[in-house]
Specification:
Elements (H helix, E strand, L loop, with lengths): L1 H16 L5 H82 L4 E11 L7 E4 L12 E4 L2 E9 L4 E5 L7 E5 L5 E6 L6 E5 L11 E4 L2 E2 L2 E2 L7 E9 L4 E6 L8 E8 L1 H15 L1
Antiparallel strand pairs: 1-2, 1-14, 2-5, 3-4, 3-14, 4-5, 6-7, 6-9, 7-8, 8-13, 9-12, 10-11, 12-13
Helix pairs in contact: 1-2
Length: 282
């Protein structure tokens, strides 16, 4: 019925364009419009909510699409920011390694830079895995440092990975000396601690909290496996009654990222050492 009325209104409207407002056709048109206008208004009123719903759905779809685009952009920016922070940490770590190399003179050693690939699941946290092995020249017994100081030694080697035993391991022991006084002794891990060390057998009582202990470079058997003057840790407490000297590691062994493995001495270093020995003998 509605379709019929719409069709008639179109016909009458077309006819009205070519005729005057008077006459029989004009009267029919007027009467028809009087009947159809309320119907048209009613239909428009009925369709308004539906039209509003359709427009609302379209707005929701557009809003959801825009939100998804914003979420995707936000995730991209977060990932980019995380990568920038990681790059900054690595840059700082490598800069500290470079500075330490220059200060200690370990440039006489072949060096392999590596990253921590896995950490010890043990509560004692005594080992870490690095992503460089024999294929890169890493060998068992090589000394490992980071930008803050001594980390440990390589204990197991595979082709592309190696295990490092930290200086906090129960079996670790390092010949050390007090950088301020020259007092010599042995640094060993404190029982039940993952970061605290003890300075055993001090030959002097002139030590003080805050003193830096470094590798001695020598041991009771002569030359040490550790190059001299690598920072080990600082004295935190001296207990005279218990005859113990406590220190914290300089390197944060629980949050290692980039490390450096000191492998064999470079050939030029051997030659220079031999020349110095000859000159001394002469």
């Amino acid at each position: 019925m509605l379709a019929l009325l719409v069709t008639l209104s179109v016909i009458l409207l077309s006819a009205s364009l070519g005729s005057s407002s008077g006459g029989p056709l004009g009267a029919v048109q007027s009467g028809f419009l009087d009947v159809f206008a309320p119907i048209q208004e009613g239909v428009s009123t009925l369709l308004t909510p539906a039209r509003d719903v359709v427009n609302g759905i379209d707005d929701v779809v557009n809003a959801v699409g825009q939100r998804n685009r914003y979420d995707a952009e936000n995730q991209r920016l977060l990932a980019q920011n995380a990568q920038l922070q990681a790059d900054r940490r690595q840059y700082i770590a490598l800069s500290k390694l470079f500075t330490l190399d220059a200060e200690l003179g370990v440039s006489s050693y072949e060096q392999v830079t590596a990253q921590i690939a896995d950490e010890s699941p043990s509560i004692w946290y005594s080992h870490v895995m690095i992503d460089a092995g024999s294929g890169a020249g890493v060998g068992v017994g090589d000394v490992v440092i980071d930008g803050d100081g001594l980390v440990g030694r390589v204990s197991t080697v595979a082709g592309d990975a190696a295990e490092v035993t930290l200086l906090t391991d129960a079996n670790s022991a390092v010949a050390a000396r007090d950088a301020r006084t020259g007092t010599w002794g042995i640094v060993e891990p404190a029982a039940g601690s993952t970061s605290q060390l003890l300075f055993e057998f001090p030959s002097s009582t002139s030590l003080a909290p805050g003193d830096l202990l470094v590798t001695a470079g020598t041991s009771s058997r002569g030359s040490s496996e550790f190059p001299p003057d690598i920072p080990i840790g600082r004295i935190t407490k001296i207990d005279s009654a218990a005859a113990t000297i406590s220190l914290e590691t300089n390197a944060n062994v629980r949050q290692l990222e980039d490390v450096q493995v000191l492998t064999s001495l470079k050939p030029l270093a051997h030659v220079a050492g031999a020349n110095v020995a000859k000159q001394g003998a002469g």
